[in-house]
Amino acid sequence: MTSITEKKPGAPEGWVIVLASSLTIVGSVMVAPVLPKMTAHFAPSMPDAALWVAMALTGPALAIAFFAPIAGWLADRYGRVKLLVLGALLYSLLGALPAVLDQLMAIVGVRLLFGASEAIIMTCCTALIADYWYGEQRLRYVNRQVVAIALVGALFFVVGGALGEHSWRTPFYLYLLPLLLVPFIAKVLWEPRKAKSEAHQPSQDGPVAMSTLLGGYALVCFGMILSMVVPVQTPGLLVSMGITSSTMIGLATGIGLLASLVGALSWPLARRTLGVSGCNTLLLILLAVGLLLLVRAPSYTMVIVAVVIHGVGAGMLVPNSMAPVMGALNQRTRGRGMGFFTGALYIGQFISPLVVSAIAGMTAGIPSAITALAFISVLYALCWAVKGVFQRRAPVASS
């Protein structure tokens, strides 16, 4: 039996993991540019079609939020690789299914099941990064994971928008492409030795740092609420400006995702220079500034400027919140701990349009709601700034 081995990870494992991780962003961005066309298609038969079409985009995040901790438990108990193969297969088949469905509610239901496959993929990939590597190597692969997500997300947002010019159904067929990755997952990846994979690390079997976990979960949840404002709300804002081309809508948000690549590439330097708290302050300020500019943009060009600034902050969010969480977990709890992290990330993604709608109902509409979220982000950034100041003044403790 070869499921447990002492192989040393290298570039092949890294490439497969980061490519598999990128599937999670494709799950949402490829559909977003065709939301207006989906709404127009189903509106004659469903008065509340706009709400349910938005649920088709963000509904998978709800499934991920609930299923990711279960996926983490399964990964801890039965292993990462076989579960990852199953998740990739389900991802492709369930992802493409809406292309042939005629009922909006059926599409929403399939997208919820699709979210469970995303939960498996993200949780297993993240746990494998923490299993295979540690220290600076682990941070390097965390960053590569985020970079791959940004690159693939930007590409497929633009591709989804271009294909959506013909029909809103066409982009869903692209979900079949990950079937090509399944043989590589099965052949290249392997289960780490549970007893010895990181025995040289003194904290391997140590206690779990709960305060670090909760802080990371809260940050990634709120950060994703802010991050999802651009892909969910930008199409509607552009339509209100008279821009209805799905290609231009896809390009705008795709550029924002590409800007997140800049943020991800800048993260190692920002983390070394500012520390974790300082980097959190910076990314929350960038998210806030991007949102404020977005709702006040008088032209398509200014929308692009806004989503670029916002994207840089979004690119720093996941690695800067994930790295401390990884370090706070030991191997026995890593699957579950990263499952809860994935759940927190996607619950933020799911509730983002709900939060915007709820605030909009209490204010003067969507732009006012986005403005309110930007100011909350500034306050949150100030909290992290204060924490960073106290940490710098306190005696340096070994972590």
UniProtKB/TrEMBL annotation:
Main localization, broad class: membrane
Top-level taxon: Bacteria
PROSITE patterns per the UniProt record, alphabetical: MFS
InterPro entries named in the record: MFS, MFS_dom, MFS_trans_sf
Domain Major facilitator superfamily (MFS) profile, residue spans: 13-389
Membrane topology note: Multi-pass membrane protein
TM spans (from-to): 12-35, 50-71, 83-101, 113-134, 146-164, 170-190, 211-230, 236-262, 274-294, 300-318, 339-360, 366-386
Subcellular location: Endomembrane system
Keywords: Membrane, Transmembrane, Transmembrane helix, Transport
Pfam family, one: MFS_1
Name this protein carries in UniProt: MFS transporter
Organism the protein comes from: Larsenimonas suaedae
Lineage: Bacteria, Pseudomonadati, Pseudomonadota, Gammaproteobacteria, Oceanospirillales
